[in-house]
Specification:
The protein is 47% helix and 19% strand. The chain has 2 helices and 3 strands, in the order βββαα. The protein has helices at 38-45, 47-80; strands at 9-13, 18-24, 28-32. It has a 3-stranded antiparallel sheet with strand order 1-2-3, with no helix packed on it. Helix 1 (38-45) packs across helix 2 (47-80). The longest helix has 34 residues, at 47-80. The mean pLDDT is 78.
């Protein structure tokens, strides 16, 4: 996202919701939510959401661990493959 007045800004996808982060004068972080994103943010961090937040975070951790394991397995599988036309030792 282009900087506003030279301030660093970034749209972050936190998987539970998205938030626009702007660093004012590279010193103060301000987070903005669009009207579409705000209900999801409140559902996550509001009174009702806080009760289930730990479970949501654990689920995200499990998904990330599975994705990393699949990526590692995929990469290790590629090491054993030989390019087409390569000769075996």
């Amino acid at each position: 996202m282009p900087p506003a007045w030279g301030w660093h800004s970034e749209l972050i996808d936190a998987r539970l919701f998205k938030v626009l982060k702007v660093w004012v004068e590279d010193e103060t972080l301000v987070e903005f939510l669009t009207p579409e994103i705000a209900p999801l943010y409140r559902a996550t961090f509001g009174w009702g959401g806080m009760a289930t937040l730990d479970a949501k975070l654990r689920e995200l951790e499990s998904q990330m661990a599975a994705a990393l394991a699949a990526k590692a397995a995929n990469q290790s599988g590629r090491k054993d493959e030989q390019p087409a036309g390569a000769m075996s030792p």
